[in-house]
Write a structure and sequence with these properties.
heterodimer, A: mainly alpha, MetI-like fold, B: four-stranded mixed β-sheet, 17 helices, cell membrane (chain A), membrane (chain A), transport (chain A), ABC transporter permease (chain A)
């Protein structure tokens, strides 16, 4: 087990290095300059030169690459070009907790409701509840979250005056973003659970359990669900990494101070330090999540062994 | 029926969530006023300010707010002219080049420190210091020694800004230019509390350490989220300030901004593009002029625009009025000159009305000019023409309208190309485009700011135009002390620019916003930043 973890850890570092290098090459391959977007003003060459020197991007690329690798290794990304008063660590340090809080709630809501819907749909296969649940799921998948978000604001904030339209100041401000963010994943999870549940329920060991006279609740929750969860766990790794690091659109619509906007804005404004900060952060989180997923497999289904055979 | 379904669905979803969250204490604080009768204005800054360090935050999202936290030697009044502010008066030497400012005895920083001339000297030298990397540094080139220092050819000591004593600042300019007083109302010329800045170089990054000298004090600043300004108790003119508090949200989505305006969470909002037509028609939009021009630039180093008659034909074939009325639809004024209205010459006449419309839409004349130009160049057919713009909805719509007008009025097919802004900006500055969209927003309040962009080699001169007579006129104007003569030179220069037509204007910009009818007195200058000093909000 330890060996497995160590191996995976080394592979993670290598993966991160590859991602870092590709990101560096790609971001310098985009034409355009970070000093162009200053409110549509055209800067003189002298001003641009001063700015480039200030941010060390007048150095040759190989030197920049080493500065960049060093900053990744030491977690010091320096100041953002777009917001020079803030370092990248400042930006991520205040954006991530917000995105994480919102994302965590959305994940919890998505998993709980998704799993419940899926189970009910599977148990009442081809019944009314199944059709209702799956209609909801199809709607959830096909309505983009930004449409849902705008509709929610229009209904609950503007028409009914029940909830605040935007910004981030407490529980009531979280409700609509959580719904908007959770609906899509909930629908995916519900459909996955339904189909794998249907499959699991026909298996021999379930029949055995029924024959033993176990109550249906125990059969479903203890025996069937554990196996049916496998496909959900698979999608959950990537889903968690992307939801927890914030979503550009939802955060923009609800004016939530999360980190989602930096992914898009940094590239639009060629804010090199922020591009690498967000990319490395996201990659590290994603790799970690995938690792956790692998560990969870072993717990959910002991038939999947990741220890000795894999590493020898 | 549709609506019913939608509501049912939403309600279902909401109930589900309420169930999951267990306890839901949904109490939106959308009440408009705080009950204690305080005047609290709720504005949206759109995004996190770039920086509150005066020489760095060279954009509206920093300086609209900063303009109310700090104050320069002068401040623009309700008449958009510079008035004494931190400086209570000033003397100008007889050659018009040396200004001696006398700073108010009661001018204070909001931490209680005295505002000194040294704070201005410190701040202005920081603006010009090349290692500051200020994008606004060029504004300080009017100060003797400023350009050399910023270009690393001089030194800080050679910059002619000197604190003679604690309350007297002496500045020598490279040329006698009366708009200097307007220019120093700009946030780039705000003072910096030297004592504070030397102790903490990042004093501007947080509310706790920020020190200002303006009508409002930065009470709290939650980055990326909101700011609270409270009326300053140390400001020399605090009796003029009526608002108790300004709450700034940072909402980047115009639809959400509009919805928050509808629910009373904001007192002012920008006009969402999707609703613009309707809101403008209903007369709900407040429109203020803005000094700036939307134009098209024709590269005189590329065929066929090396021919003046062909350039002129392309200008005369575009109906600016139609573009303004049916494409932009935001109550802009069509432009037939480059300098926008709002600059008065010494006789009190507006620059624009004095020079008037320098050309007019005339499709038959355009056609004639095109034929003549083609004959001069020996063209049977015109070389292919591509009109390039940076990608936005409005630019696209205008470019398509222009394309249609050329087809109809000149029988010429123009190709359209678009590019993302950053790439576009770099390529345009290099003069890579044959025919491209340009925009100019004034940095300080004088026509010379518009006209100086087109002398040889300026970064805005993407048309690669070079005209000795024009360069000379601008040079003379920049050295002319007598304002009447200076304006005469600028009138002549603009006429020459439009006669040679390396560019043609389309319309003058404006500022449009929705505003709560209880709010009065917010001043939006054509050149300059939002002014809340005189704003009020009735309950």
């Amino acid at each position: 087990m330890l060996r497995f973890v160590l191996n995976r850890f080394l592979a993670m570092i290598l993966t991160l290095w590859v991602i870092a290098t590709l990101t560096f090459l790609l971001m310098h391959a985009i034409p355009g300059s970070p000093f162009n977007n200053l409110n549509g003003k055209v800067l003189s060459d002298a001003a641009v030169k001063n700015l480039e020197a200030h941010y060390h991007i007048d150095q040759p690329l190989p030197i920049q690459y080493f500065i960049y690798l060093k900053s990744i290794a030491t977690f010091t990304y320096g100041p953002s070009i777009k917001q020079p008063a803030q370092t990248v660590n400042d930006l991520l340090g205040r954006g991530f907790p917000v995105s994480f809080e919102l994302g965590m709630w959305a994940l919890v809501v998505a998993v709980l409701t998704g799993v419940l819907l899926g189970i009910f749909a599977a148990l009442k296969h081809n019944g009314l509840i199944d059709y209702l649940a799956m209609t909801l799921a199809v709607l959830g998948i096909s309505i983009p979250n930004f449409v849902l978000a705008t509709l929610l604001i229009q209904e609950f904030a503007v028409n009914l005056h029940l909830l605040p339209a935007g910004t981030w100041q407490g529980l009531s401000y979280m409700i609509m973003p959580i719904i908007a963010l959770a609906t899509g994943p909930m629908a995916i999870i519900a459909r996955l659970i339904r189909s794998s549940m249907l499959e699991v329920l026909t298996q021999d060991y379930i029949r055995t359990a029924q024959a033993k006279g176990l109550p249906p609740f125990i059969i479903v929750m203890k025996h069937a669900l554990k196996n049916a969860l496998l496909p959900v766990v698979t999608v959950l790794g990537t889903l968690a990494a992307s939801i927890l690091t914030g979503t550009f659109v939802i955060e923009k619509i609800f004016a939530i101070p999360g980190m989602g906007k930096y992914f898009v804005d940094s590239i639009n404004s060629r804010d090199y330090p922020v591009i690498m900060g967000t990319t490395m952060f996201y990659s590290a989180l994603l790799i970690l999540m995938l690792f956790l997923v692998d560990l969870a497999y072993g717990w959910l289904d002991p038939r999947i062994k990741q220890s000795k055979e894999g590493s020898k | 029926m549709k609506k019913l379904c939608k509501n049912g669905f939403m309600l279902g979803m909401a109930l589900l969530l309420v169930f999951v969250l267990g306890a839901c204490t949904a109490k939106p604080n959308s009440s408009n006023e705080k009950s204690d009768g305080k005047q609290v204005l709720k504005l949206n800054n759109g995004a996190e300010p770039t920086s509150f360090n005066p020489p760095i935050g060279f954009d509206a999202q920093s300086w609209n707010a900063l303009n109310n936290l700090m104050e320069g030697l002068t401040r623009l009044g309700k008449d958009h002219e510079p008035h004494p502010a931190s400086a209570e008066k000033w003397d100008v030497s007889s050659d018009g080049k040396t200004y001696t400012f006398h700073i108010r005895k009661d001018a204070k920083w909001d931490n209680g420190d005295d505002l000194t001339a040294g704070d201005f000297e410190y701040a202005w030298k920081q603006l010009l210091n090349p290692s500051t990397g200020s994008p606004a540094a060029f504004l300080g080139y009017l100060i003797e020694g400023g350009e050399a220092y910023n270009m690393k050819k001089g030194s800080a000591d050679a910059v002619q800004v000197k604190a003679v004593d604690d309350k007297t600042l002496k500045v020598t300019l490279t040329a006698p230019q009366s708009y200097f007083l307007n220019m120093i109302s700009n946030p780039a010329f705000f003072p910096v509390n030297q004592k504070v800045a030397e102790k903490n170089p990042k004093w501007y990054a947080n509310a706790k350490t920020f020190v200002g000298n303006g009508p409002f004090k930065l009470a709290s600043w939650k980055h990326d989220s909101n700011m609270v300004f409270k009326k300053s108790t140390t400001y020399w003119d605090k009796k003029s300030v009526k608002l108790d508090e300004v709450d700034w949200a940072m909402v980047n989505d115009t639809n959400t901004e509009y919805q928050m305006y509808k629910t009373g969470d904001l007192d002012s909002a920008s006009v969402p593009p999707d609703l613009a037509n309707q809101l403008f028609k209903e007369g709900k939009v407040k429109v203020d002029p803005q000094a700036g021009t939307y134009f098209f630039s024709m590269n005189v180093k590329m065929k066929p625009f090396d021919n003046a008659k062909i350039r002129k034909a392309f200008a005369l074939a575009v109906d600016n009025k139609q573009i303004v009325d049916y494409v932009v639809k935001q109550k802009n004024d069509p432009a037939y000159g480059f300098v926008s209205p709002g600059f008065k010459d010494p006789s009190g006449e507006d620059f624009r009305s004095h020079n008037g419309n320098l050309y007019k839409y005339d499709p038959s004349e355009a056609k004639k000019l095109l034929a003549e130009g083609m004959k001069e160049e020996g063209y049977k057919t015109l070389p292919p023409i591509t009109l390039t713009y940076n990608t936005t909805d409005i630019n696209k719509a205008i470019a398509e309208a222009v394309q249609e007008m050329y087809k109809k009025n000149l029988g010429v097919s123009v190709k359209l190309a678009n590019m993302e802004w950053n790439v576009y900006g770099v390529d345009q500055k290099k003069g890579k485009f044959q025919f491209s969209r340009g925009s100019f927003l004034a940095d300080y309040g004088d026509p010379i700011n518009f006209l100086e962009n087109f002398i040889t080699g300026m970064p805005m001169n993407s048309m690669q135009w070079s005209n000795k007579e024009y360069d000379q006129l601008i040079k003379q104007a920049k050295n002319e002390k007598d304002d009447a003569k200076r304006y005469a030179l600028m009138y002549q220069a603009e006429k020459l620019l439009i006669k040679e037509m390396p560019l043609f204007p389309v319309y003058f910009y404006n500022q449009s916003e929705l505003q709560n009818s209880k709010v009065k007195g917010i001043v939006r200058h054509p050149v300059g930043y939002m002014e809340l000093k005189w704003a009020t909000k009735s309950n």
